[in-house]
Amino acid sequence: MADALVLFSGGQDSTTCLALALERFDRVETIGFDYRQRHRVELDQRPEILKKIVAIKSRWEGRLGKDHLLDLGILGQISATGMTREVAIATDASGLPNTFVPGRNLLFLTFAAAIAYRRGLRHIVGGMCETDFSGYPDCRDDTVKAMQVALNLGMEKNFLLETPLMWLDKAQTWRLAEQLGGPALIELIVEETHTCYLGERGRRHDWGYGCGECPACQLRLRGWRNYRGL
Ligand code: ZN
């Protein structure tokens, strides 16, 4: 039986990865992390999405198993970034956005592997993406491949780290979601997933909720427009 653990944050990318995993694997578990992000909107959306996504296809329902929410408060304590503090989102001297949380994906993958080890899961699926990306070095294909080697050596395992969105742009990610779950999945992603760095959920746009101005909203908005041919 093929199985997978999906890094599921409650955002657009990880929800698309979850749909892909439900399509491909017989048994799927999810993992999310509370690292004291400056808003909890994504985390609050996770159970809603998990509840609703299985209603899209009957065979997805039997495949979705346990959800793991890990407390990584220590990461919020040691980080001084635009994701974990109330500071303006900007680019720092090195050219990296200050929304980059050093070590975040490295820790996420390590903790995911530890859970996968315990739960006997082989595939670890993440929404890291090098196309259209925000300049985060821990989203690079080489970073993830290096982590796979390190985790397999360090845990004496044969995990496969899968990043199905790595070479897709945001419009292609919307298209992939449409292929996987049709209009119902598009509707779920628009309505329930959260992307905005500021945690804004007051304004509903055709691409979903958000401030519309922050880099995450801008990326989602551009991807939506390209996907819809606007
Ligand atoms: Zn925003």
Essential attributes:
230 residues; alpha/beta; Rossmann fold; 8 helices; binds zinc ion
Notes on the protein architecture:
This protein is an alpha/beta fold and 230 residues long. It has a single domain (3-195), classed as 3-Layer(aba) Sandwich (Rossmann fold), CATH 3.40.50.620. The protein has helices spanning 12-24, 41-53, 58-61, 73-78, 104-119, 141-155, 170-192, 215-228, and strands spanning 3-7, 27-34, 64-71, 123-125, 160-162, 204-205, 208-209. The chain starts with a strand and ends with a helix. The structure holds zinc ion. Zinc ion is lined by residues 196-198, 200, 210-211, 213-214, 216-217.
Entry summary:
This protein is an alpha/beta fold. The chain has a single domain (3-195), classed as Rossmann fold. Helices cover 45% and strands 13% of the residues.
